[in-house]
Structure formats: C-alpha cells, structure tokens
C-alpha cells in the first residue's frame, strides 16, 4: 500500500471512530425542553418532573419552556427550526404532527422537520359538563344539541387537537350541531370552565381539572379511554355510549428537529425510557389517570406515522378543514 492510499484509509478510519466519540460526549450543555402548550395542562404537569429526572441522569440541566398556541404548532415550529443537535426538544401530544397538518397549514413539514424521539404516555380524554350545562349526563347533552342546534358550546385546548377531532366525529355520527370553541392551550380553558363560560369541554386529566372535579365544579360525562377509569367507574366510555370513532385518547411524546443525529436520538430515547420507569414518575402519571408508554425510537416513529395516515382518512371523511 502506497503512502497516499494509507493516508486516505487512516482518514476514513478516524472519521468513523469520531462519530461514536461525539455521541458519547452528548450532552455537554443545557437542553431546552419546549412544552408546546401553556402552563397548567397535562403535558406541563408531566414534562417538569421528567425534566428533573433527565437532568439528574444526563448530568446537564434540562429546562422547560412553555410555548403554546395554534394547537401546539407554535412550539413545534420553534423546536423544528432549532439546530438539529439534540439541545432543543419538544414535549407534545402527537396531534401537532399527526393531525394538525391535515386540517390547516403549519409552518413545518411534519415528516421531514420533526423527528420522533420517545413515547412518553397516553392519557384519557374527559368530556366534561360545567355549571352552565343543565343536563345530568352525556345523553342529555346529545338531546339538548338535537333540540337546540348550535346552543351548546364545547371548548377544547385548540384546533386540531384530539378533543376537536372527538367533537367533529361526534357531530358527524350523531347528526348534531355543537359549537366548537378552541383555546390556545389547557390553562385558560380550565379557568373559563370553572367560571361556566361554556357548557361542555374536553380535557386530559391535569391537576387543575381534577381539582375542579373533586370540588364538584365540573362533572365527567364521558371518557375517551380503552375502558372505564378506576377513578370514575360509573362514567361510560364514548364507545359504550355508541360513538366508537370519538373514543380517542391522547398520546404524548418527545420530538427533536429533523436530521438530529441518530446516536443522539438513541441516547435520549434510552434516558427517557429509564426516567419513565422511575416510581415518582409513574406515581405522578397515575394521579393524572395517565399511563407510561415507553417505546423504542422505531416503535414510536411507526406509531406516529400510522396515526398520521389514519388521521388523513378521518379528516377527509369528516370534511374537517381550518385555514
């Protein structure tokens, strides 16, 4: 082997060896974890203890930043446009990636600009009655909507959220008209629900929502869940009520900018899965009636893509569009 060929071979070997070394030193500085919703919601309640756990495991501070609005699109876009180096991540329901792009324009490409990192949990969806709702149960809500089209208002945490999709599926299946009131996240909608600013709303369990239920200021009329919840054994699921297409849950996960190195994604996935197994994290989720949902990078990416394709069909069938 001549000297030039040896030099080229040595350079190639050095480059190959450098990649694992770079992955080993990650992270070397603060990681920003964007919660794509305002404070007070489910994702915020889980993201903060998760960030604390990751800080201890990684030896670098993980700071939480709330950047809500547009159904999660504002925060997701901020993350997607950040450097693809693993130092800016997003905690979100998967809907800003799998649902929102099908019902309106988003400033990011959900399949190219966003990379699934780790599944975190799934949460049931409450259908709640406020003090403004005069009925006793979910069937009363349907009866009122049929008797007075457009008189009932249902608030959600945003356009193209799971709650919004549940409503549109319900309207289609029941042939009713309920007015959708989209908010910019879970915090303000909870405050307004407590004040009876609308009759109905959908929400994932959160400390604020659960406190209002305990106080009797909100009533759980139905749940989107695989089965009845232990906390509300007398409350039927949407499927039991005859609306299986509205029997939806919310899956939450961590995302990174597209083109983030695979070694960094793999490290984050392993650390997040480790954190999800910690007793304090599982206990925190249990209080929110949520279930840890660890998965490999490949499993989570497959689930996100499957949901993306399924929502495309649902949105087309229900003629949901918001521009």
Provide an overview of this structure.
This protein has twelve helices and eleven strands. Helices cover 44% and strands 18% of the residues. Helix 2 packs across helix 10 (262-276). By secondary structure, it is α/β, with parallel strands linked by helices. The protein folds into two domains: 30-123 and 250-318, 3-Layer(aba) Sandwich (D-Maltodextrin-Binding Protein, domain 2); 125-246, D-Maltodextrin-Binding Protein, domain 2 (3-Layer(aba) Sandwich). Helix 7 (162-174) links the parallel strand 6 and strand 7 (179-182). A six-stranded mixed sheet has the order 2-1-3-10-4-11, sandwiched between helices. A five-stranded mixed sheet has the order 7-6-8-5-9, sandwiched between helices. 47% of the residues are buried.
In brief, what are we looking at here?
The chain contains 12 helices and 11 strands. By secondary structure, it is an alpha/beta fold.
Output the keywords:
2 domains, alpha/beta, 6-stranded mixed sheet, 44% helix, 12 helices, 323 residues, single chain
User: Would you tell me the overall average pLDDT?
Assistant: 91
Superfamily (CATH H level) name of the largest domain: Bordetella uptake gene, domain 1
CATH level-3 fold name of the largest domain: D-Maltodextrin-Binding Protein, domain 2
Main sheet? Answer: 6 strands, mixed
Q: From the coordinates shown, what is the CATH architecture of the largest domain? A: 3-Layer(aba) Sandwich
The SSE string, one letter per element, is HEHEHEHHEEHEHEHEHEEHHEH
Q: Strand pairing plus helix content: what structural class?
A: alpha/beta
Show unreliable segments.
4-22
Number of domains: 2
Q: In percent, how much strand structure appears in the residues?
A: 15-25%
Radius of gyration: 22 Å
Total DSSP helices? 12
Shape: globular
Q: How many E strands?
A: 11
Q: Which strand order do you get reading across the main beta sheet?
A: 2-1-3-10-4-11
Q: How much helicity do the residues have?
A: 40-55%
Distance between the termini: 64 Å
CATH class call of the largest domain: Alpha Beta
């Amino acid at each position: 082997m001549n000297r030039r060929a040896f030099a080229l071979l040595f350079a190639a070997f050095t480059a190959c060896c450098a990649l694992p070394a770079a992955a080993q030193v990650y992270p070397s500085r603060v990681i920003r974890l964007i919660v794509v919703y305002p404070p007070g919601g489910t994702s915020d309640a889980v993201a903060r203890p998760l960030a604390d756990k990751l800080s201890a495991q990684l030896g670098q501070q993980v700071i939480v930043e709330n950047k809500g609005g547009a159904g999660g699109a504002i925060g997701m876009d901020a993350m997607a446009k950040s450097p693809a180096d693993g130092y800016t991540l997003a905690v979100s329901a998967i809907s800003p990636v799998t649902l929102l792009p099908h019902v309106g324009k988003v400033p990011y490409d959900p399949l190219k600009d966003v990379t699934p990192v780790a599944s975190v949990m799934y949460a049931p969806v409450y259908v709640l009655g406020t003090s403004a709702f005069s009925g006793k149960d979910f069937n009363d809500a349907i009866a009122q909507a049929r008797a007075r089209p457009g008189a009932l208002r249902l608030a959600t945490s945003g356009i193209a959220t799971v709650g919004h999709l549940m409503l549109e599926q319900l309207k289609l299946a029941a042939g009713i008209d309920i007015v959708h009131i989209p908010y910019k996240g879970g915090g303000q909608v909870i405050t307004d629900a407590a004040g009876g600013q609308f009759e109905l709303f959908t929400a994932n369990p959160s400390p604020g929502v659960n406190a209002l239920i305990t106080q009797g200021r909100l009533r759980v009329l139905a749940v989107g869940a695989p089965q009845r919840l232990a906390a509300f054994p007398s409350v039927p699921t949407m499927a039991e009520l005859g609306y299986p297409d509205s029997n939806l849950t919310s899956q939450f996960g961590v995302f990174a900018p597209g083109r983030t190195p695979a070694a960094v994604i793999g490290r984050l996935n392993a650390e997040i899965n480790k954190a999800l197994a910690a007793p304090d994290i599982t206990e925190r989720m249990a209080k929110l009636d949520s279930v840890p949902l660890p998965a490999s990078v490949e499993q989570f990416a497959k689930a996100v893509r499957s949901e993306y394709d399924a929502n495309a069909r649902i949105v087309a069938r229900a003629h949901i569009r918001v521009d």
